[in-house]
Specification:
Blueprint lengths: L9 H18 L3 H23 L17 H25 L7 H28 L6
Length: about 140
């Protein structure tokens, strides 16, 4: 299997793992643990996404795509995507009193994270590259 095939598996897997890791710290209101988990998962996601994107020779070399190949792009996108997962966990814990996350919650967390990452990527692209400063 090529490294590019793993790109479809990484966001949902990290989203489900982040939902599971976030469950108990949010339940105990340990805000520092939430921020640390958020930072670690965003940095891990940015690193893995950068490595997967730059696995081919022409994407990150000279003359490649300079916009979405930077690690800062991945970090900003991941931070926004995982923020949606934090909001999802907050909502689920307010409406239910589950001690542990169920399989349905983990799957929804994976889907919400993946969708939020895609949406954040498009919104950031519009903000930074379409409406950004122009050299005229």
């Amino acid at each position: 299997m090529s490294p590019l095939h793993f790109g479809f598996l990484v966001p949902p897997a990290l989203g489900a793992a982040f939902t599971a890791v976030l469950w108990n710290p949010y339940r105990a209101r340990k805000w520092l643990a939430i921020v640390i988990a958020w930072t670690v998962f965003a940095a891990a996601h940015a690193y893995v996404a950068h490595q997967l994107l730059c696995a081919t020779t022409l994407t990150c070399g000279p003359g490649g795509i300079p916009d979405k190949s930077s690690p800062m792009w991945g970090a900003a996108t991941a931070a926004l995507g995982y923020a949606a997962t934090v909001l999802f966990v907050a909502f689920i814990q307010r409406v239910s009193s589950q001690e542990r996350p169920t399989v349905q919650v983990l799957l929804l967390g994976a889907l919400i994270t993946t969708g939020a990452l895609q949406l954040a990527s498009e919104i950031l692209w519009l903000v930074w590259y379409v409406n950004g400063p122009r050299d005229r």
